[in-house]
Amino acid sequence: MVRLAITDFTSKEESEYFYVNEEYETSQNMFTYSGFKKYSAYLPKEGDYKFYSLNLLSKKYLDKDKFLIHIADEEFVILFNHKTIYSAKINPNFITDDMVKSILISKHITMLSSGGELTKFYYVINSKYRAALEIILKQNIKNEQKQVIAQSLGDIEDLIKPLKDLDTPKSHSTKLFILIFLFSGSFWLSAFGFDMIKEKYLKIESLDPLKQELNFEDKFKNRQMKTLNDTQAEYNKLTDCITYKEAIR
Asked: Which parts of the chain fold into alpha helices (H)?
């Protein structure tokens, strides 16, 4: 079974007021997705439903300044500019009365929202009483020229197909594969990769040739100093016998 959920509530309390009645004591946080943008609503846990976003459905198929009426077995919702402007519960035992009341209220609200002129209403009926509800809707939504301005957006089963959840079994498998790949890569890199990279690209040349060259320079310098000292000593010895050292200069 398909159920369209309103996802433009501003708080948990507002959504629970609309969705949670005396039958339900707890609610769950339901997420819908569109283009990797997440929208949430709090919905009853009870019931075997497939949930889709009514507001995202409106955004996908309707332009700006358009109205969308959604009628289910127990609810009547009207959206303008993809935002909920009116919602009401429908008693299945008094569908006609509740429908007419909701339609009249909706016409008043939408006339105010649109500046007093009604051109087109789009609707989606998601109920086992679809035929009867469609007749009631068309009979009560007409313009000043008494022309029917209610137009079906299409079958709910066809409209909701593009609204898929972000996480599917395929996406879970892909994410799991990516995580395993990243984990394996990190383990290999820490265990073996760094050593291989270091050996291949960060290899440090040996300092032995430089040390040998420095040793040679030190020895050569020592030899030069020894030669200089020996020459100086010999020079001093030769000049010690000279009385007047100024003559040497």
From this structure: 12-19, 54-61, 95-113, 130-140, 156-159, 169-188, 194-201, 208-239
C-alpha angle 164-11-86 in degrees, rounded to nearest 5:
80
CA 197 to chain centre: 36
* Residue that has been written with the tokens 């077995």 in this structure: 73
Q: 203-217 pLDDT, tens per residue?
A: 666 677 888 888 888
How many Å apart are CA 70 and CA 85, to the nearest integer? 12
This model's pTM is above 0.85: no
pLDDT digits (tens, 9 = 90+) for 94-129: 777 777 777 777 667 766 766 666 678 899 998 888
Residue 124 is predicted with a pLDDT of 92
Question: Hey, how many other C-beta atoms are within 10 angstroms of the C-beta on 58?
Answer: 25
